[in-house]
Structure formats: structure tokens, C-alpha cells
């Protein structure tokens, strides 16, 4: 009895510490995170929906790099495919190309010190973003840099849902084929991706480039007339003058709760239809209320989620929300041809959001994300062609399925509800 009492007290103290740590860490983070977005930019976009096609193109562009390759990923593993990727970066660094690799510390935990040393010996600059640190150990362990951004020679950018690991090229049978959406970007928007990479790099290393500093947007911060010729040359290598292309878009980096407001703003614009594609549908209460309001005013809501989950409890966490939306007339589809990891939000075929953020509480409140809003009708029509194929590979989720007596599912839903912030 005494042992049980002692253990109960210890458990209470641990939970209380977690709670205080989280709340204080969150308060500090929310207070210092400034909202950010670009104005309307004009670029050119390709979209990749298969990993093998994406990485064939991605590796080819890295091989052609002349000046620098800047890469931020949430996950890089230590399997054969990851080793091929890292070997390519080492080869480019040995050629004299500047290679900077920024990885989330928790997401890329398989990257060992030995492997980092190998990369650095070849000339690759490596840093880890968002390390677990005092004074808020628990909160900092939950805040992750979930962005996946690459900039090559300041002229080509990549952004989307793919990471580096064998599952992303269909070599993990349970989750194959892997379905995702990843953008290849050219045009003036690449400058912003570069500045955001430098911002994350500076935060993780406490140093920027010799002259660029924190990597802020040079068009805003730097006055070229104050620079000498060598400094202007250095700046232009990272921020070349880029062509104004045809596709209207904006980039929106978010953290510390900013994404919730962004999504709510998008949903409020909807007059006819909303499409949400996400691997994890776990909205906040405010976001869910806005979805229900849209349904009540006659907006047609369609949601696509995976049939097969890649993490425990994420499906059960979504079921209470999906149950209510189905009752309100929404349509829900489960993608069956592999694993659906894509992240998109389309409003009235006028705005298409593609990026790194899931439609879940972790992306809303804890992750650092990067999304792209596209306003081009031709691109959105192309995206709808992609979705037509995805619908063909999906099955409707019915209210009958979610209301059938299932004690195991009900128990999992209760547990998932309690943990939904961290799933």
C-alpha cells in the first residue's frame, strides 16, 4: 500500500512537471513567434506525386548544382536510400559546392555522430534544428521543424511532404506505394525559400553567412548600395535575380499556433466547396467549429485520409470529428492504394494550399511548417486531375462503419482523444 502511494505521488509530480513545463514553454514560444508571409509572387511549379519520380528529378538537379545546395528535412533515415542521398551531398561538397544540411533533431534521430563526422569531413555543413533543451525539456521535445525545403543555386526550390527514407520510394511494403504531393519551384519565390532556410539555419547554428547574417530577405533588410563589389557578388550568388513567371502564389511559414488562424481564414472564404487531403485529421476545436459552420451554410466538404495508418491511434483520434462531419453531410474517403501522406487544402477551386502541414493539432500548434498558397486556375485544374486519380483509389468511409458497435475502437478513441495534441 505504501509503495502504491509513493508511486502515485511520483506519477502526480511527473505529470504536474510535464504540464508546467509545457505551458510555460508554449507561452514563451507563442510570445516571440512573429507571423510571416510573402506578398503575391509569380513562379513556375511542377508537382510530383510519386517518390521515385520526385527523387530522380531532385537528385539530378543536385548533381547539376554549381554554387550551393541548401536542404532542410524533418526526417532523414539511415537506410540504403538515405545513404545514397548523403553520399550525393558529400560528392557535391568534395566538388567545391557549398552544401548545408539542416535536420530536425528528433525526426532525424537515426543520423549518428559518426555519420555527421563523415559528412563534415567531406565538407558538408550539418546542423540540427530545434534540439531538446532547458529550461523547457518537455515542450522543446514536442516542437519540431517539420519543414521540407530545398534550394539549389538560389534558382530551384522544392517543398512538400516527402522526407528521405526507403518508404518514400516505395520500399516499405506495408506503406507502399507512398502517395504524397511535392512541389518543384522556379521563379521569384525561390528567394523567400532561401531566406527562410537561412533563418532556420541561423537559429540552429547561431551564425549565418559572413555577410548575410541571419538570412533575412535582402530586399527588405539589405541595402546593396552599402555593399562593396565582392559583397554584392556573394549576395547575388544566394539571391540571384529571378524571372517573374506566371503562377500566382504565396509562401506562409508558421509556428506557435499561427497555422490555426491561417486555416480558419481559408475556411471562412469557402462558398461552394472545401477539399482537405491529410494523413492525420485531428483539428483543433476552433478549426473544427469553422468546418461545421461551413457545412451548415451549404459548403460541400470532402476529406481524404489514409485507409492504413502509419502511427498508432491517429485514425481513432480522427473518428469523433469524421463522425460528426458525416452526420453534417460531408464526404470522407479513405485512400487504399498504399499510404496517403499528402497535405492539401483547396477552397472553391480558387485557392490551393500545398505544403508540409498536416490537418492536425501537432502541425497547428507544435510544428514549424511551410505552406504554399497557389491561386492559378490552370495549376488547380491540374491538381484536380491528381485528385480524380486519388478518388479512384479510395473508398467512402460511411457513418454506419463508424457507429457500429466496436468496444476496442471506442477505447482507442478515448485514449487518442486524451493524447490528440501529441499524436
Task: Give a quick set of tags describing it.
single chain, 423 residues, alpha/beta, Endonuclease, Chain A, 15 helices, 22% strand
Distance between the termini: 34 Å
Major beta sheet summary: 16 strands, mixed
In total, how many beta strands?
16
Structural class computed from helices and strand pairing: alpha/beta
Taken together, the total number of domains comes to 2
Percent strand equals 15-25%
CATH topology of the largest domain: Endonuclease, Chain A
Low-confidence stretches: 210-226
What would CATH call the homologous superfamily of the largest domain? Endonuclease Chain A
Number of helices: 15
CATH architecture of the largest domain: 2-Layer Sandwich
Taking Cα atoms only, what radius of gyration do you get, to the nearest Å?
Answer: 22 Å
Kindly describe this structure.
The protein has about 425 residues and is of the alpha/beta class. It has 2 domains: about 40-245, 2-Layer Sandwich (Endonuclease, Chain A), CATH 3.30.870.10; about 250-420, Endonuclease Chain A (Endonuclease, Chain A, 2-Layer Sandwich), CATH 3.30.870.10. The protein contains 15 helices and 16 strands. The protein has a 16-stranded mixed sheet that branches. It is globular.
Provide a brief overview of the structure.
The chain has helices at 2-32, 51-63, 80-94, 113-121, 137-142, 190-205, 218-221, 229-238, 258-269, 285-296, 314-327, 361-366, 377-392, 399-403, 407-419; strands at 41-50, 68-73, 98-104, 125-129, 149-152, 156-160, 178-187, 247-254, 273-277, 300-306, 331-335, 339-340, 344-347, 351-355, 369-374, 394-396. It has 423 residues and is an alpha/beta fold. β2, α3 (80-94) and β3 form a beta-alpha-beta unit.
Amino acid at each position: 500500500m505504501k509503495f502504491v502511494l509513493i508511486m502515485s505521488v511520483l506519477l502526480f509530480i511527473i505529470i504536474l512537471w510535464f504540464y508546467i513545463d509545457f505551458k510555460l514553454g508554449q507561452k514563451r514560444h507563442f510570445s516571440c513567434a512573429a507571423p510571416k508571409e510573402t506578398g503575391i509572387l509569380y513562379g513556375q511549379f511542377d508537382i510530383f506525386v510519386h517518390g521515385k519520380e520526385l527523387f530522380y528529378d531532385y537528385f539530378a538537379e543536385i548533381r547539376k548544382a554549381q554554387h550551393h545546395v541548401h536542404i532542410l528535412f524533418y526526417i532523414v533515415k539511415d537506410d540504403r536510400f538515405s545513404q545514397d542521398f548523403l553520399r550525393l551531398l558529400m560528392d557535391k561538397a568534395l566538388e567545391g559546392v557549398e552544401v548545408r544540411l539542416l535536420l530536425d533533431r528528433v525526426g532525424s534521430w537515426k543520423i549518428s555522430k559518426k555519420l555527421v563526422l563523415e559528412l563534415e569531413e567531406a565538407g558538408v555543413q550539418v546542423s540540427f534544428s530545434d534540439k531538446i533543451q532547458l529550461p523547457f525539456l518537455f515542450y522543446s521535445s514536442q516542437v519540431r521543424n517539420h519543414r521540407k525545403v530545398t534550394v539549389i543555386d538560389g534558382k530551384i526550390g522544392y517543398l512538400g511532404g516527402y522526407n528521405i527514407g526507403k518508404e518514400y520510394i516505395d520500399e516499405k511494403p506495408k506503406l507502399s506505394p507512398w502517395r504524397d504531393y511535392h512541389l518543384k519551384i522556379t521563379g521569384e519565390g525561390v528567394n523567400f525559400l532561401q531566406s527562410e532556410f537561412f533563418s532556420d539555419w541561423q537559429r540552429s547554428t547561431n551564425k549565418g553567412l559572413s555577410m548575410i547574417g541571419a538570412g533575412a530577405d535582402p530586399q527588405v533588410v539589405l541595402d546593396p548600395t552599402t555593399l562593396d563589389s565582392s559583397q554584392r557578388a556573394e549576395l547575388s550568388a544566394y539571391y540571384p535575380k529571378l524571372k517573374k513567371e506566371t503562377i500566382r502564389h504565396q509562401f506562409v511559414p508558421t509556428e506557435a499556433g499561427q497555422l490555426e488562424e491561417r486555416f480558419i481564414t481559408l475556411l471562412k472564404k469557402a462558398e461552394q466547396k472545401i477539399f482537405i487531403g491529410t494523413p492525420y485529421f485531428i483539428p483543433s476545436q476552433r478549426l473544427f467549429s469553422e468546418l461545421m459552420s461551413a457545412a451548415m451554410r451549404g459548403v460541400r466538404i470532402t476529406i481524404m485520409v489514409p485507409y492504413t495508418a502509419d502511427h498508432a491511434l491517429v485514425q481513432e483520434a480522427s473518428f469523433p470529428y469524421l463522425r460528426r462531419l458525416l452526420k453534417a453531410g460531408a464526404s470522407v474517403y479513405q485512400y487504399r492504394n498504399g499510404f496517403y501522406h499528402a497535405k492539401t487544402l483547396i477552397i472553391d477551386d480558387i485557392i490551393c494550399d500545398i505544403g508540409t502541414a498536416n490537418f492536425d493539432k501537432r502541425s497547428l500548434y507544435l510544428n514549424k511548417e511551410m505552406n504554399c498558397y497557389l491561386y492559378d486556375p490552370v495549376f488547380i485544374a491540374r491538381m484536380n486531375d491528381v485528385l480524380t486519380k486519388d478518388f479512384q483509389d479510395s473508398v467512402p468511409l460511411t457513418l454506419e462503419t463508424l457507429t457500429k458497435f466496436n468496444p476496442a475502437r471506442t477505447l482507442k478513441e478515448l485514449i487518442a482523444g486524451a493524447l490528440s495534441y501529441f499524436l
